Structures are given as C-alpha cells and as structure tokens.
Amino acid sequence: MRGATSTGIGAKGKAVVLIDGALPPPPPVGSLSGNAGELDTEDVEAWRRFREVGLLDEAAMERRDREALLERASRLENLKRLLHDLQEEHVLIKKVSDSKLADAKALAAGNEEKSLEVEEKMRVAESKLA
C-alpha cells in the first residue's frame, strides 16, 4: 500500500493500517464526556485509542461481524446435526421399547393362559379325590 502507515499498536497483536488521505472522521466534540462544545484531552485520547484498536475501521468491523456470523452459523449447523442425531436415537429407542413391550404383553398373556390351565387341572384333580 503506497502511503500507508501501520501503528503497530492494537489488541491481540493486530495492527491498524491508516492510508494517507483516508483517515477516519474526527471525533465528535464532547461526545464521550457529555460536555457539548468542549473537547478535552481524555476524549482525544479515547478516540485515538479507538482508532488504534480498529474500532473506527468500518472494514475491520464488517470483517469481525462476518466472522461472528459464520461462527454462529457453524454452531447452528452443529446444533441441527445434534438434534437430528437425537431424533434418530429417539426413534430407535421407541422401536426397541415398543418391541419389548409387545414381547412382555405376549409373555403375560401366555402366563395367564398357563395359569388358567393349571387351575383347571387342579379342579379336575380335586374332583377326582373327592
């Protein structure tokens, strides 16, 4: 970049590149301290720090927004996949559960039938003894 300077100061090792003639607009007067019409050194220093860490760099902010959106989209896809897996597991568990319930009902019905047969045989035996 011709005419560009890098401050080398920034959060997390990031450097801000300022292009000659394309500086961000000056800070609004009194916007940070609430004193309309006055611009104290704290405000100037705060705006300088904002600019140094890239908070006034629209392209960097858009890039961060895009990165955050992509991360959220990725998380959403992961959640959708996990939900789908849970739904498949639920269907499988339901099938196994229904099958075991049907087996248990059939076993109970078979036991009831055998119990009736045993009772009948006991009545027959008692009647022979009487």
Look at the structure and give the mean pLDDT. 79
The count of DSSP E runs of length 2 or more, i.e. the number of strands, is 2
Give the distance, in angstroms, between the N- and C-terminal Cα atoms: 117 Å
Provide the gyration radius in Å: 39 Å
SSE run: EEHH
Largest sheet: 2 strands, antiparallel
Oligomer: single chain
Percentage of residues in strands: under 5%
Structural class: mainly alpha
* Tally of individual helices: 2
Helix content: 55-70%
**Rough shape?**
rod-shaped
Strands of the largest sheet, in order across it?
A: 1-2
**Poorly predicted runs:** 1-11
Fold and architecture overview:
There is one protein chain. This protein has two helices and two strands. With 130 residues, it is mostly helical. A two-stranded antiparallel ribbon has the order 1-2. The longest helix has 72 residues, at 58-129. The protein is rod-shaped, with a radius of gyration of 39 Å. It starts with a strand and ends with a helix. Residues 1-11 have low confidence and may be disordered. Residues 59-96 form a coiled coil. It is found in: Nucleus lamina.
